Amino acid sequence: MINIKQFGGVVIATIIVIGLAVFTYGSVQPKGQIYLYGEAHGEDKIIEKELEIWKSYYQEKNLRHLFIEAPYYTAELLNLWMNEDNNEILNEI
Prior knowledge:
0% strand, mainly alpha, 4 helices
C-alpha cells in the first residue's frame, strides 16, 4: 500500500516530467516542412503520383530533397545528386 507521502512524491515527479515535456516541446521550432505521400509499396500508380507531386515542388519551389523507399544504393546516388548542380544522376536513376 502506498502512503500519502509517497503519493505526493509521485504526483510532484509527474508534474515535473509533464512540465519539462511541455517546455521542451514549446522550445523546438520546426525548420521546414515534410510532405508524405503513398501507402502501398511498389504500386506504379502511387509512384507516378508521388513523382508528379514532387516534380511540381522541385520545379516551382526548388525543393530537391525527396525521400523514397528504395535500395540503399539508389539512396546513395540520390544523396550525391542532391549536392550536384545538374540532374545527370537523377536522370540515370
